[in-house]
């Protein structure tokens, strides 16, 4: 991902991701970096880059990792609050569509040692979707996700921009790009049923 020293999003003291225009200027923003947990300064204006910057001059934070964590946490928050996602086609048999969720659980942990997904979302008819975020140049999960007999979607966040309010939201909710099925038990069973009714085997 592109290196940045100023970000448009940060974490407030309640753990919510907030946009730079929605908080007070300077240290009064009361925000932190979700990766290194350092205090941030909100810059408003044209003299310096508009956005959040780390408060300390001598810091050890890896800003490339900070950006990834910000994108990751914002993606989780968007799905948790909007309760929907745009899913891709399945072998061009089932077209892309928007799925609405009844409940959404997020993990909030960027680096994972377990086999759990980043998001577990359930529809009104009790279909469960596991959602995993990835970056091409970073292995976040030390172990593969346990998605046997479940619907599991992987979304690649590499290169996603967070310079404004809506770019990442539109990518997640209205686009089927940069995502793939690791498994889709719902669609597979529907295909299996169609073949069975036609007297064929998969």
Characterise the protein shown here.
There is one protein chain. The model has no long low-confidence stretch (mean pLDDT 88). The protein is built from 3 helices and 12 strands; from the N terminus they run βββββαββββββαβα. It has helices spanning 63-82, 167-174, 185-197; strands at residues 9-12, 17-19, 31-32, 40-43, 51-54, 84-87, 97-100, 103-106, 119-122, 128-134, 151-156, 179-183. α1 (63-82) packs across α2 (167-174). It has 2 domains: 9-64, no CATH class; 67-197, no CATH class. With 202 residues, the chain is an alpha+beta fold. The relative contact order is 0.14. A hairpin with a 4-residue loop joins β1 and β2 (17-19). The strands form 4 sheets. A 5-stranded mixed beta sheet has the order 8-9-10-11-12, covered by helices on one side. The chain has a 3-stranded antiparallel beta sheet with strand order 2-1-3, with helices on one face. It has a two-stranded antiparallel sheet with strand order 4-5.
For the secondary structure, the number of strands is 12
Note the gap between the termini: 40 Å
Uncertain stretches: none
> Average pLDDT across residues?
88
Question: What strand order characterises the main sheet?
Answer: 8-9-10-11-12
Number of helices: 3
Helix content: 10-25%
Give the ordered list of helices and strands: EEEEEHEEEEEEHEH
Query: Which structural class matches the secondary elements?
Result: alpha+beta
């Amino acid at each position: 991902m592109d290196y940045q020293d100023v970000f448009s999003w940060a974490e407030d003291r309640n753990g919510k991701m907030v946009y730079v225009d929605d908080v007070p200027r300077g240290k009064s923003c009361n925000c932190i970096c979700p990766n290194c947990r350092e205090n941030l300064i909100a810059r408003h204006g044209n003299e310096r880059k508009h956005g959040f910057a780390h408060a300390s001059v001598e810091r050890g934070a890896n800003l490339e990792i900070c950006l990834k964590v910000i994108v990751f946490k914002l993606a989780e928050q968007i799905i948790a609050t909007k309760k929907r996602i745009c899913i891709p086609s399945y072998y061009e048999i089932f077209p892309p569509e928007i799925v609405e969720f009844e409940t959404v659980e997020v993990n909030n942990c960027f680096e994972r040692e377990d086999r759990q997904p980043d998001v577990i979302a359930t529809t009104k008819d009790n279909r469960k979707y596991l959602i995993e975020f990835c970056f091409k140049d970073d292995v976040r999960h030390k172990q593969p996700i346990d998605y046997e007999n479940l619907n599991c979607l992987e979304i690649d966040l590499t290169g996603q921009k967070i310079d404004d309010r809506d770019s990442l939201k539109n990518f997640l909710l209205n686009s089927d790009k940069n995502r793939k099925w690791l498994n889709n038990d719902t669609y597979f069973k529907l295909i299996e049923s169609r073949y069975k009714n036609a007297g064929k085997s998969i």
